[in-house]
Amino acid sequence: MVNTNVLSRIRLLQGDITTMEVDAIVNAANNDLILGGGVAGAIRIKGGPKIQEECNKIGTIKVGEASVTSAGNLKAKYIIHSASMSLGGWTTAQSLRDAVKNTLLKTEEYQIKTIAFPAIGTGIAGFAADECAKIMFDEIISYLSNKSHLEWLYLVLYDPKTYQIFKEHYDSLRV
Ligand code: APR
Question: Where are the domains of the chain?
């Protein structure tokens, strides 16, 4: 059973992550930081051109790393670009784990208190949603168990099936 203080800081929602009024929205990024479709597409369209311009200044990062830009026109303060794959490549268990871990470390550097994650890797990058839930919860819980600066961590799932998979995993942690 996971410590209730940790689980109580995690919230699952179904919807569009770009509507979240949080300090940071996590982008499901490629390591070239080129905003394509899916989450990145929604951030690009609603956040405006500033975000890609800032990504272009950062340039290519390593797969598994994370970079921070402003959130452009979105209500959030920051976008954390969590690069779990390379363009044209696939997300792997290790690259997802590294990307989530490095994204969480950025919350400390930027004093981020509230953050929203999508189901990284489970769209264009082809990673299985149930495997993604296991890995994301594992990394998030081990991080929250040691750090308390994060007040709320939202997992925002776009479609009902992915929401259900994450919800079942979340409920299994409470028993
Ligand atoms: N809000 C929340 N979740 C969303 C949204 C949204 N607006 N749009 C899509 N999703 C969901 C997808 O349904 C999927 O479950 O986010 C998950 C991740 O899907 P992708 O965004 O396709 O990300 P990923 O699979 O990690 O692939 C990343 O795709 O768009 C390109 O530039 C991006 O190269 C990168 C790659």
Answer: 4-173
102 lines ligand 1 (CB under 6 A): no
If you average pLDDT over every residue of the chain, what do you get? 96
Confidence band of 175 (pLDDT split at 50, 70, 90)? confident
Q: What is the dotted CATH code of the domain comprising 4-173? A: 3.40.220.10
Which parts of the chain are beta strand (E)? 10-14, 24-30, 66-70, 78-85, 114-117, 152-157
At 173, the pLDDT band (50, 70, 90 cuts) reads: very high
Both structure tokens of 35: 């905003």
Distance CA 16, CA 100 (A): 19
Is the distance from the beta carbon of residue 125 to the nearest atom of ligand 1 less than 6 Å? yes
Atom of ligand 1 nearest to the CA of 17: 1
Rounded to the nearest angstrom, the distance between the alpha carbon of 99 and the centre of ligand 1 is 14
Q: Is the pTM of this model over 0.90?
A: yes
